[in-house]
Design goal:
Blueprint lengths: L2 H6 L7 E3 L2 E3 L3 E3 L11 H13 L4 E8 L12 E2 L3 H15 L4 E7 L15 E2 L13 E2 L2 H21 L3 E4 L6 H6 L14 H4 L1 H14 L4 E7 L10 H11 L5 E5 L3 H5 L12 H7 L7 E3 L6 H9 L5 E4 L1 H5 L3 H6 L14 H7 L32 E5 L3 H12 L3 E5 L8 H5 L10 H11 L4 E4 L6 H7 L3 E4 L3 E3 L20 E2 L1 H5 L7 E6 L5 H11 L3 E6 L14 H10 L3 E3 L2 E6 L3 E6 L5 E5 L2 E5 L2 E3 L2 H7 L9 E4 L9 H13 L20
Parallel strand pairs: 3-4, 3-13, 4-5, 4-6, 6-9, 7-8, 9-10, 10-11, 11-12, 12-13, 14-15, 14-17, 15-16, 17-28, 19-26, 20-21, 20-26, 21-22
Antiparallel strand pairs: 1-2, 18-27, 23-24, 24-25
The structure holds adenosine-5'-diphosphate (ADP) and iron/sulfur cluster (SF4).
Length: 681
């Protein structure tokens, strides 16, 4: 063990009693969605177990439904409805315990928020309110419903204990049932559960006391709560402070968040920096003697240790940093700080859950593949030996080079550009995307300790040079370029008659083009690129019009939780926004725009048109090597990343990782299927 790491960061490795249990250190994986939940129990258990193996002292579930009236399908929540759920979650608790960590469960009832699509039960709420996304409303709870809810919560707490959990949550936050009771707007009851703060908090207090009585001798009780309330119309910051004061020492642990979930707590690095919750959490520190955990996308051990030493936090909470690097605590402990795979704050992880698939992470390609493919985030099996030439040092090429180097291959990595990183290097210079450079930096640091990998920059390779090089394997990772002709989702063919001299692509802008005057940006891509360019050009003084075929700015970024802030940002910068509109033509002085519904067209002045539509794989080199066949008999060559399939950076990193793992054995990591077996009767 490296003494520097141990002594400087010792405070992070002190055990901490939490009621009847003791956290072995200060690294706490707070509850986070996984897209696995009740649907993929083995996948879930292995993923959570991996965090414990990597040194997280506490590892929690995602939101865990206590009863079928809280059914969030199609999102794969966890559940403790019955004995089958106990078995599944016990598997997770066991894998967490196997590494000496504590397992926590976030008991949850969604209230009016959930539509109960699968269970077909009416949802319940403090009043009858619309669900978050579906056109259904909840049933207003009467006293018998309140009693039933308390019984369900109690039963779930007992099942949690039976499953082996050490920490049981009570969860009056994030818009769910017990939060509804706290809300001065939603709670219009005139009985002892409505009115004063004390009354509105009655249900929370009862559930806390009942949970403690049922499982408190063996499990710590945690409350996840917002340190600054939920907006004045629901629960002001003062009321939130009063409530923490009122209940202060009832739980064994406060897991503190802030009221603005998408805007701040879960915000991406485009909008919020590391440790942004500190001040608001510090303000409530004096209101309880119990330990506090909170998040802040912490990846810097210095920030972590400062928060512990200053007394703001007792435990360093993390969701995303633990996804990007399940071994973050161990690396700090062993003084291997430059090996930390830092989260870039892109929320691709969140987007996976939001679409009902198991977690994926831009930085950590093994995330979600621990059980399915048997991938370990830190260990790769040795290869069969030989040499590999990789053309292209973008995320796909860099990831492949570093994994192949670790597997013992002799790797040559060549890139035409003067610096490594490909699209990541270029995109990280756009507004708000600086942290994305971590995708490159982590891998470059890894390569430094791998003498069998050599990198040649400024080396544009032709097919003849690749053949001459004579490597045993060739990976083509030459990326993709943005199309200039408008072809994409809306236009299946190039737009006719474009005045090409004044059409720019994101590639032109990333290489320094800065148009002035009136600029129209056509977003048929629907993610971050077009709005980020709008910010770049608006800040540089251009008069920007953002045009999209969708109904809102950057519509796909709804999944990463960025949509609202993105649209807000463009409005604040004075960008003119035209939704449900397509660019149909451009003559150098005006764009022809069309309504996507009516087909009505009109002209609008524009000196420059920026096309953000689709990308063309840069596959010429691959084609020259293999012809029209999918493989060249004389040469073992394959293409990976954007030159095969233009997609997210996460896809490119995954493709590089997979190719490197499977180089000599394509079947080696065929995915297993996580499913429970139905017994015949
Ligand atoms: P990916 O996301 O798939 O990793 P990128 O677009 O980020 O792809 O990176 C592709 C890299 O490949 C770029 O840095 C580019 O300079 C490099 N490249 C493209 N063609 C060649 C070539 N013929 N020789 C060497 N490097 C190339
Ligand atoms: Fe961080 Fe992005 Fe990975 Fe999520 S997907 S953990 S935000 S790097």
């Amino acid at each position: 063990m490296n003494m520097t790491g141990e002594s400087r960061y010792q405070a992070l490795f002190e055990p901490l009693p939490l009621g009847p249990v003791t956290a072995p250190n200060r690294f706490y994986q707070v509850p986070h969605c996984s897209g696995m939940g009740h649907a993929l129990p083995r996948t879930l258990a292995a993923m959570r177990g991996m965090k414990a193996e990597g040194g997280w002292g506490v590892v929690c579930t995602e939101y865990c439904s206590i009863h079928p009236t809280s059914d969030d399908q199609p999102y794969p929540f966890a559940a403790l409805w019955d004995d089958g759920d106990i078995v599944n979650l016990a598997a997770m608790a066991q894998q967490v315990h196997a590494h000496g960590a504590l397992a926590g469960v976030e008991l949850w009832h969604g209230g009016s928020y959930v539509p109960n699509l699968a269970s077909r039960l009416p949802s319940i709420g403090v009043s009858s309110m619309p669900s978050r996304e579906e056109p259904v409303q909840s049933q207003r709870m009467d006293r018998s419903d309140i009693r039933a809810f308390r019984r369900w919560h109690l039963a779930a707490a007992r099942r949690a204990r039976q499953a082996g959990f050490d920490i049981v949550y009570v969860y009056p936050t994030h818009g769910y049932l017990m939060w509804e009771f706290l809300s001065r707007s939603l709670n219009d009851r005139s009985d002892e559960y409505g009115g004063s703060l004390e009354n509105r908090a009655r249900l929370l207090r009862e559930v806390l006391e009942e949970t403690r009585a049922a499982v408190g001798d063996r499990c710590a009780i945690a409350v996840r709560f917002s340190a600054d309330g939920h907006g004045d119309e629901h629960l002001s910051a003062t009321e939130a402070h009063d409530l923490i004061g009122m209940l202060g020492d009832l739980p064994d642990l406060w897991d503190l968040v802030v009221g603005d979930y998408y805007g701040e707590e879960m915000a991406t690095s485009r909008f919020v920096r590391e440790g942004a919750l500190e001040e608001r959490v510090a303000r409530v520190r004096g209101l309880t003697r119990k330990p506090i955990v909170s998040v802040g996308r912490f990846t810097s051990p210095d920030t972590m240790v400062r928060q512990i030493r200053s007394g703001v936090l007792d435990l360093i909470g993390a969701a995303r940093p633990s996804i990007a690097d399940p071994f973050l605590p161990m690396k700090i402990r062993e003084g291997r700080l430059d090996e930390i795979r830092e989260c870039i704050g892109c929320n691709v992880c969140y987007a996976s859950n939001y679409r009902g698939t198991a977690l994926r992470c831009t930085q950590n390609p093994t995330m979600g593949e621990e059980w399915r493919r048997g991938w370990h985030p830190e260990r790769v099996p040795p290869g069969k030996g030989g040499s590999v030439l990789i053309v292209g040092a973008g995320p796909a090429g860099l990831e492949a080079a570093h994994i192949l180097g670790k597997r013992g291959y002799i790797v040559t990595l060549a890139d035409a550009a003067g610096e490594p990183g490909g699209r990541v290097t270029l995109e990280s210079r756009l507004p708000g995307l600086a942290e994305w450079a971590r995708v490159r930096d982590y891998r470059i640091t890894q390569l430094r300790s791998l003498p069998q990998v050599s990198m040649y920059l400024g080396s544009q390779l032709s097919a003849a040079e690749v053949r001459e090089f004579g490597a045993d394997h060739v990976l083509i990772a030459t990326g993709a370029c943005w199309r200039r002709d408008g072809r994409g989702r809306w236009h299946s063919r190039p737009i006719a008659g474009l005045y090409a001299a004044a059409v720019l692509t994101p590639d032109d802008l990333m290489h320094g083009a800065r148009p002035e005057g009136e600029v129209t940006i056509f977003d048929d891509d629907h993610y971050y690129m077009a709005p980020v360019i709008a910010v770049l050009l608006a800040r540089a003084g251009a008069r920007v019009t953002y045009v999209t075929t969708n109904g809102s700015v950057s519509e796909w970024s709804h999944y990463t939780g960025e949509q609202e802030r993105t649209q807000q940002q463009l409005l604040e910068l004075g960008v003119r926004i035209q939704v449900s509109t397509a660019v149909e033509g451009f003559d150098g002085s005006a764009v022809t725009l069309g309504c996507v519904y009516s087909g009505r067209t009109w002209q609008q002045s524009a000196a420059t048109l920026v096309m953000v539509t689709s990308r063309e794989p840069r596959e010429e080199l691959y084609r020259e090597l293999v012809g029209e066949e999918s493989s060249a008999p004389a040469l073992k060559v394959q293409r990976i990343g954007d030159c095969r399939q233009p997609a997210l950076i996460a896809h490119a990193v995954f493709a590089g990782h997979q190719a490197a793992r499977e180089l000599d054995d394509p079947e080696s990591s065929a995915p297993g299927r996580d499913r429970s077996v139905v017994e015949s009767h």
